[in-house]
Design a protein that fits this description.
With about 130 residues, this protein is of the alpha/beta class. It has helices spanning about 15-30, 80-90, 105-120, and strands spanning about 60-65, 70, 75, 95-100, 125. The chain has a domain at about 60-125: Nucleotidyltransferase, domain 5. Strands 3-2-1-4-5 form a 5-stranded mixed β-sheet.
């Protein structure tokens, strides 16, 4: 008696290759696509300038880490700083203001001061910064 072998079954088609193609397409479109919202207009950020001498003259307002303000070595309230700045602006409308803020000072102490100085008539406000060491 001869035993016959069963005929070999046809190999089922694998979809592994198709899954790989879909995965690569997904990765490709994730890398190529933009994930952030685009602005409705072009925005060019300001450029910081370091290594130049500060302009002479003007008025320097110091902002401490705790939010205290000082002019000419005297600690003043924000309202007193603005009054003194307005008085100096009345005599010299082109007065330059320098803001020397401590690195620990919160922006909530610095930015409103800049806005108030501009509202009082200041044309130029310079922030004093320290460049990063190379």
């Amino acid at each position: 008696m001869k035993l016959r072998r069963a005929p070999p079954r046809a190999q089922p088609e694998t979809i592994v290759a198709l899954i790989d193609v879909v995965f690569f397409l997904l990765v490709f479109f994730i890398l190529v696509g933009r994930m952030d919202a685009t602005a409705p207009f072009d925005v060019i950020p300001p450029t910081g300038v370091t290594g130049q001498d500060l302009p002479a003259g003007g008025m320097t307002v110091a902002v401490a880490g705790d939010g205290s303000y000082a002019i000419d070595g005297a600690v003043l309230s924000r309202d007193a700083v603005l009054e003194k700045a307005s008085a100096r602006l009345a005599g010299a409308p082109d007065l330059l203001f320098r803001i020397n803020a401590d690195r620990g000072a919160a922006l909530r102490h610095v930015l409103p001061l800049i806005s108030d100085l501009e509202a009082a008539g200041a044309r130029d406000v310079v922030l004093i910064v320290t460049p990063n060491p190379p």
